[in-house]
């Protein structure tokens, strides 16, 4: 058996005599293989992409970011979309209102009967503008002239902004010096009063606490009413010529017929 010191010396002699085949540096054969593969791929790429001797644009002039919209040809033009125009002018008279927005004309079984006194004074009333009308809506009188804004004390159902309404119940129609009083109402074929619905308006929120006697429970009631807003478009009195064209009949004066009174 050899001692440990003899074996250690023998191993050191072998290490110095034959250098180790494993080293940290890469082998020259492996380096040549890698270099050959890199040269081969470079040659294939250069053959697939032909190189022009005189390029049109230099490499530095190529834009980095492209436009999102494609370029159109010079001969072709982009189609222009038609722009819709809306009429924002508020109509002032009945002639400015579309036909589909105008109210339906009422039908009557008998012709209009006008007394001689009303027919004689009607030109003075019709020729003196502006006119006013005391219209009644749900048994409430409203003094209206052209251009007034009216807020009804309720929300009128089945109406939309832009609708044209006709107030046909009035107790009086007049001007600065003349007044046509009805008995009790003026015939709606003698005048025209048209209003336009402009929208709705809401009041502030109301909160009211309710409680009963000898009870701790308190009930809270909340309410927020909405009202219909209107604008008077036209108030006018028809002339005798218009009434005769519509088929009016002149009758004698009576006690229960409308009369035109002059302001003294």
TrEMBL record:
GO terms for cellular component: mitochondrial large ribosomal subunit. Residues 40-89 are annotated as: Disordered. InterPro entries: bL21-like, bL21-like_sf. It comes from the Eukaryota. Residues 65-89 have a biased composition (Polar residues). GO terms for molecular function: structural constituent of ribosome. Belongs to the bacterial ribosomal protein bL21 family. This is Large ribosomal subunit protein bL21m. It comes from Penicillium steckii. The lineage of its organism: Eukaryota, Fungi, Dikarya, Ascomycota, Pezizomycotina.
């Amino acid at each position: 058996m050899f001692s440990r010191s003899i074996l250690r010396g023998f191993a050191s002699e072998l290490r110095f005599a034959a250098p180790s085949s494993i080293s940290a540096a890469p082998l020259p054969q492996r380096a040549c293989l890698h270099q050959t593969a890199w040269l081969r791929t470079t040659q294939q790429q250069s053959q697939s992409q032909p190189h022009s001797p005189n390029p049109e644009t230099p490499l530095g002039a190529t834009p980095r970011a492209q436009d999102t919209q494609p370029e159109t040809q010079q001969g072709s033009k982009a189609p222009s979309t038609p722009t819709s125009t809306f009429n924002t002018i508020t109509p002032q008279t009945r002639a400015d209102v579309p036909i589909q927005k105008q109210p339906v004309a009422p039908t009557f079984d008998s012709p209009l009967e006008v007394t001689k006194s009303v027919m004689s004074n009607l030109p003075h009333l019709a020729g003196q503008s502006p006119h006013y009308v005391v219209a009644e809506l749900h048994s409430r009188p409203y003094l209206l002239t052209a251009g007034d804004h009216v807020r009804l004390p309720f929300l009128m159902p089945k109406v939309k902004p832009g609708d044209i309404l006709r107030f046909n119940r009035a107790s009086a129609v007049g001007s600065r010096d003349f007044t046509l009083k009805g008995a009790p109402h003026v015939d709606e074929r003698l005048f025209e009063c048209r209003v336009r619905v402009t929208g709705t308006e809401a009041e502030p929120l109301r909160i009211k606490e309710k409680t009963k006697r000898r009870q701790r429970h308190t009930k809270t009631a909340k309410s927020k009413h909405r009202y219909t807003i209107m604008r008077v478009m036209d108030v006018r009195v028809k002339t005798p010529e218009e009434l005769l064209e519509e088929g009016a009949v002149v009758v004698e004066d009576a006690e229960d017929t409308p009369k035109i009174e002059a302001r003294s």
